[in-house]
Write a structure and sequence with these properties.
single chain, globular, 2 domains, 10% strand, 4-stranded antiparallel beta sheet, alpha+beta
């Protein structure tokens, strides 16, 4: 009798267990991603109608298809954050969108003034800097935010190192002062990102030589 009880299989209630948790978590991440992408699309386009809705739905479907793991999966530290942390991140994301919209508006005016100025005070340069952000999505969001803002465009993102082209050094004030990074960091539960050490270059040749010197110095240090 004791052996029978000892070796009797344990039954699991339907809809429970690790597989159910994983499927439920995946569904929640999928819904969250759809909502975030839809809100981002509407904020950036500002257009409504059946045609635009179809374009939005197709675009979101493509993103879901090429990203089967979904953001905030089990491999991501975000997956282990509490509901309260996620709620605060949602609020921080909304604040970021409002801040970004204002920065884009200001940048549009600044670029227009520079172009229409009789002397056209444009000083195009490349800037290279690093970030202390650890989350890959946070780094990509910073890169895309710079590209969305008139006057700056992200040329390359290699690990924690950015290469950005600016129409004028003043156009990158939100980055050089750390403002952009610190609007993104709270969304992913990260701490303050101090203002980066920015290196300015007037040509890609200068950047190439600097990269070689930096890589060699890093290898020598290791």
């Amino acid at each position: 009798m004791a052996d029978t009880e000892r070796h009797s299989p344990q039954t699991t209630a339907p809809g429970s267990g690790p597989e159910s948790d994983r499927s439920g978590g995946r569904l929640g991440r999928t819904v969250a991603l759809v909502v975030i992408l839809a809100v981002f699309w509407i904020v950036l386009s500002g257009l409504f109608g059946l045609t635009y809705f179809i374009f939005m739905a197709v675009s979101i479907a493509i993103v879901l298809a090429i990203n089967p793991e979904r953001p905030f999966g089990q491999h991501d530290p975000e997956a282990h954050r509490s509901f309260g942390d996620r709620l605060r991140s949602s609020v921080d994301f909304f604040r970021y969108l409002v801040w970004l919209a204002w920065e884009v508006l200001k940048a549009n005016v600044d670029v227009a003034v520079m172009i229409l100025h009789p002397r056209m005070p444009i000083r195009p340069q490349f800037m290279v800097f690093r970030t202390t952000l650890k989350n890959d999505l946070a780094r990509v969001l910073v890169a895309n935010s710079m590209t969305l803002t008139p006057g700056t465009i992200t040329v390359d993102l290699d690990g924690d190192r950015y290469l950005v082209h600016a129409i004028h050094p003043g156009s990158a004030g939100a980055v050089t002062g750390g403002g952009l990074q610190n609007k993104v960091a709270p969304i992913f539960g990260e701490g303050e990102d101090p203002p980066p050490d920015v290196r300015w270059h007037t040509s890609y040749h200068e950047i190439h030589d600097w990269r070689i010197d930096e890589d060699e110095s890093r290898e020598a240090g290791t």
